[in-house]
Amino acid sequence: MAKQVAVGIDLGGTNIKAGLVDSDGAILCDAHVRTQANRGPDHVLGRIAEAIGQVLRQRPDGAEVCGVGIGAPGKVSMDRTTVIKPPNFSDWDEVNLSKSLAHLVPGCVVVENDANCAGLGSATWGAGRDFDSFIMVTLGTGVGGAIIHEKKLFRGVTGGAGELGHMSIDYEGPYARSGVAGATEAYLGLHYLSHHARYQLHTRPSILHEWAGRDLARLSPKMLHQAAEQGDEPAREVLAWAGHKLGVALASVVNLLDIRKLVVGGGVSAAGHYLLDPARMALHGAVMPSLSEGLELVRETRGNEVGVLGAARLAFEDAESKIGA
Amino acid sequence: MAKQVAVGIDLGGTNIKAGLVDSDGAILCDAHVRTQANRGPDHVLGRIAEAIGQVLRQRPDGAEVCGVGIGAPGKVSMDRTTVIKPPNFSDWDEVNLSKSLAHLVPGCVVVENDANCAGLGSATWGAGRDFDSFIMVTLGTGVGGAIIHEKKLFRGVTGGAGELGHMSIDYEGPYARSGVAGATEAYLGLHYLSHHARYQLHTRPSILHEWAGRDLARLSPKMLHQAAEQGDEPAREVLAWAGHKLGVALASVVNLLDIRKLVVGGGVSAAGHYLLDPARMALHGAVMPSLSEGLELVRETRGNEVGVLGAARLAFEDAESKIGA
After folding, report:
1. What is the pTM of this model?
2. Nearest CB to A169 within list B133, B156, B171
3. Residues 71 to 110 of B: which have CB under 8 A from any A CB?
4. Mean pLDDT of chain A
5. How far from B162 is each of A116, A131, B47, B183, CA to CA, in Å?
6. Domains (ranges, CATH) in chain A?
7. Are the C-beta atoms of residues B99 and B279 closer than 8 Å to each other?
């Protein structure tokens, strides 16, 4: 019997990741190509087609492709066809990926916001699979989020829900690129976190000065984590500071939504318990007592795969809904 | 033909309001009794029964009662029968109101959180009736809220969703009674707002000194509004300060949920545009640009009736669901 598979695409500003995913969430083969987002939509469409082609050429015998799912930055239309003004993509107003890529593959091309895809991937095959409802946070270049309620994505009125990074934790706090004062992203976004670390480390001895080659602008969360592992106190303090901000933001989400399971993914989550323990402490301190039972913050188990997995899951769900209809 | 009506009860810590509501949202007759919440659950049950009895005795000929809805403070069980530890009610752990009051009326007794009832009332017959999805904020003794998404209440995992008053707008801000630092309620709750006003007015000339009989602890939002109407600058500043905090909190909700319609009710909303104009300004300033289209903050049109209306609506919905089943 033919084995059902779906193509999952994680469209980033720098790289496109693609994977052929089976119905158990195994990635059978994958591909990475450069996005070259500065060369405009037509070029990027070609790059996505290239990535799809690469995984399809590697597909195992008997694998039957039911469709393609794409996780994209920025806003995605409610009908899941069109990507609207993704940040850092040149000349991109609104592009209907479903239509533009339809000729390439059997089945449909379905698009969703990348953080929402991560949430869907986690809900199906990641740390969120045991939870009916949870909040997904992705700590990468920016801070993204997704709301999964009763196993479904909560998308809001126009598909823009889940933007945790743009919630404010201090109305007089620093500005994020969105223009929101004290936005979570203004503390935990990669650029902002590095900036804070530089400032904190400036006058203190730390192994990070050596690792960063005297240029603290080169600091990465991975470096911070490794320094923390080696007992570097300033590195631990920076991660604890960031974790505290994360916990405070998530507490507001719990208080508003009464959803008590939180899954943290994305590159910055590599900082592990140096980030997540302080986050848990702040979370428990700022969730109202009547909502604290069963409160749980865990790290995503499928790492960066979760975006590709969620995108593939989109395609599976779409195909299933058409069989059901 | 018999006219379908429902009894709506707004169970407060001080008063119980009851109304007989028809399917157009008209309140045909009403009753007010004292809650006497300090005398324990059995006594309060008797008081609710008294309020129900009063409206039933006034019911017009031909009115057929399909059930009773009750809006109650604190947590309500997911099955909408039981009120759990309502604040300021003595000796009240968990009380199943549906069971305890079932013998009094034809149809069922359905219970929901009071702020959620206000949201439901607004959605059906109030300022929210034109919106498929909106956020209801109730500014009273505390700050409550409800999330209406696609005409339905979003209740979260255990029925506790919507607690806007416990979202933080400043992680280093003042503590609210919930123990959450910088919680919205720590600025806009009645007690906190009066406290801020006292502090602001202490050394400044204001008509409010005279009105409050030299005891600024007696300040009410109504006094603040009236003083603002008469051009009292300190009163206007206090209301603008509160409005700013409201707008900042609501912006985070919009950024998280992509729900762009906001309805403000409750006693403090009597301060009108002196409160709501600054709230709108802060809201527009802190909502991310991609979510600002169609953003709208309006005042509830049915005033304090909205709680009784929403409670009655609960009973109508419950009766309809049983006919449908």
Report:
1. 0.95
2. B171
3. 74-75, 85
4. 94
5. 22, 20, 28, 14
6. 3-121+305-324 (3.30.420.40), 129-301 (3.30.420.40)
7. no
